[in-house]
Structure formats: structure tokens, C-alpha cells
Automatic annotation (TrEMBL):
This is Uncharacterized protein. InterPro entries: Oligoribonuclease (IPR022894). It comes from Mytilus galloprovincialis. The keyword Hydrolase applies. It comes from the Eukaryota. Residues 190-217 form a coiled coil. Keywords: Coiled coil, Hydrolase, Nuclease. One of its GO terms (molecular function) is 3'-5'-RNA exonuclease activity.
Length: 297
């Protein structure tokens, strides 16, 4: 019942107001209403059947409202109040954590004309960018040999509607624009070549970084192999190929520490030197081999 009251009675105006908000700066008023810790201690107003969050908007008295408040006698218990209190506390903490920038203490908590003017040019959706990616994919599909610069110029020509823009001009203004474009064409071509060289340089730097990283990994792999071989030589061991070889190796060891060191050396050798695709760890299970030795003794 408490959840129905919070959802059907008190949050309807908030949801409608949030969907009608044109800018995010206009939503700080709605968020500030939700940021109220009073109902965490005394939620009696929230379960009264009246709109508390937005008193100027009456609740929508539909079938759910009638079933909960008009044709139902509230039980004499504190369960509903406790539930409303817990939900109010959760709502307060959630709003404080996720909407701190839109609250009165946040950077967007007040109406700022400067930020409002700057946000006028922000697109309200991403349909344009998604369409550009779709067009880019289509051009790459039908013209796989086309360069990125060619596709970029094509998309700019289509999106800017240059032909329609020129056709709507007076002939004199149109000729003046074309003449100006022809004069500035060498400058743009020069900048385009510079950008192309820069892109190529960035690509070469990325390839060089990959080669350096690959060389580092190869050197580390060689070092690991050499370390594994040195460990076997230091322990005076030979690589084990079968379980029988492992069993014989462990029988020669005197203490548990020697057995554990020998097994670790063999596993390290197989990991870095032989590099098996799937290492059968059961063959090198110390506890399993130890149990077999005890049973055979």
C-alpha cells in the first residue's frame, strides 16, 4: 500500500514533469522536491492518499486509487508506516548520491543563464550521429577501397546539403561564393594534406608502440624460459614426460619441501618452455602422487 501511494499518488507529477523538461537545468526543481529527509522519520503524510510532493496537482483517482484508499480500511499497524519510512530513506540516499549535481548544493542546482545559453547548441538526441555511422558503414560496404577522407567529404556534402544551399541563392551571390571557394581551395587542400600526414604519423607511432610491446613480451617469455631451465638445473632435475617420471622424481626427494619445489619447477617448465595448450594438472597433483606413494609403500 505504501508503494502504491508513493508511485500512484506522489510520483505521477514528477514523472510527467521530468518528461516535459526541455533542459536539464529545469529539472533541478523536481529533484529538490525528492530530496527531503522529513518523510524518513514521519511518513504519515505519504500514506494519507493525498499528493504531498506536489500539492498543486491532485492525484489521479483511478481504479487503483479507489481500491487502496476509498474501499479499503487501513489496518491498525505500523507496518505501512515503516515501509514508507524505509522507501523514503532509500529515495533520499539515492537522490543524494546520483543527483548531487542537480540538488541545491550542486553545480546545476540553480538557474544559471550562462550555462543555459551554452546548452542551447547541445543536441537533444543522437539520431544524427547514428545516421552518420550508418551512412559510413554503407559507403564502406559498397566502396571498400574508398579512403576515410573521401567518405568524410561525401558525408559532409550530403549533410550540409550544399547543392540545395547554392540553388537557393541569387546568381550573383552564388558566383561570388563559388569564386571565393575556388580561391580558398589551395589552402584547404594544403591543410588536408597536413592532416593526412599527421594521421599517417599517428598510425606509424601506434604500430611502433605495438612492436615495442611485442618485443618486450618476447623478451619476457625468453627470460621465463631461461629461469625455468635454470631452476631445473639448480635442483638437478630432468623434465618429466609421464606420471611415472614424476613418481620416480618424488621418490628421490627426501623432504616435503623438496617434493613441492620439484613439482613447482616441473610445472613452471611445462608452462613456459613446452607451453602445452591444456596442462593436465592431475598428473602433477602433489596430494594425489603422495597418496599413491603411501598406498604402494
Amino acid at each position: 500500500m505504501a508503494l502504491v501511494n508513493l508511485e500512484e499518488v506522489n510520483f505521477q507529477h514528477f514523472q510527467v514533469g521530468l518528461t516535459r523538461t526541455v533542459q536539464l537545468l529545469d529539472a533541478y526543481v523536481l529533484f529538490a522536491v525528492l530530496w527531503c529527509p522529513v518523510w524518513s522519520k514521519d511518513p504519515s503524510d505519504l500514506i494519507s492518499g493525498e499528493t504531498v510532493l506536489f500539492p498543486e496537482v491532485p492525484p489521479c483517482k483511478d481504479d487503483i486509487f479507489d481500491a487502496v484508499f476509498l474501499n479499503h480500511v487501513l489496518p491498525d499497524t505500523d507496518v505501512i508506516s515503516e515501509s514508507a519510512s524505509l522507501m523514503s530513506t532509500h529515495l533520499y540516499l539515492t537522490v543524494s548520491r546520483l543527483l548531487k549535481n542537480q540538488l541545491p548544493e550542486g553545480c546545476h542546482g540553480t538557474d544559471n543563464e550562462t550555462i543555459r545559453e551554452e546548452s542551447l547548441t547541445v543536441p537533444k538526441h543522437n539520431r544524427t550521429s547514428e545516421k552518420n555511422f550508418a551512412d559510413f558503414k554503407q559507403i564502406r560496404h559498397f566502396k571498400p577501397n574508398a579512403s576515410i577522407e573521401h567518405i568524410e567529404a561525401t558525408l559532409m556534402w550530403v549533410n550540409n546539403k550544399t547543392v540545395e544551399w547554392l540553388d537557393l541563392m541569387d546568381p550573383e551571390i552564388k558566383n561570388a561564393k563559388i569564386t571565393l571557394a575556388m580561391k580558398r581551395a589551395p589552402e584547404f587542400i594544403s591543410k588536408w594534406h597536413e592532416r593526412k600526414i599527421q594521421l599517417k604519423q599517428n598510425r606509424l607511432e601506434k604500430l611502433k608502440e605495438k612492436e615495442t610491446e611485442k618485443a618486450r613480451k618476447d623478451a619476457q617469455s625468453i627470460k621465463n624460459k631461461q629461469t625455468a631451465l635454470d631452476t631445473l638445473q639448480m635442483l638437478n632435475l630432468q623434465p618429466c614426460n609421464t606420471v611415472q617420471d614424476v613418481t620416480e622424481m618424488l621418490q628421490k626427494c627426501r623432504t616435503e619441501n623438496e617434493k613441492e619445489s620439484a613439482l613447482k619447477a616441473q610445472i613452471t617448465f611445462y608452462k613456459f618452455v613446452i607451453i602445452l595448450p591444456i596442462l593436465n594438472t592431475n598428473s602433477f597433483s602433489f596430494l594425489k602422487i603422495k597418496r599413491n606413494l603411501i598406498q604402494n609403500s
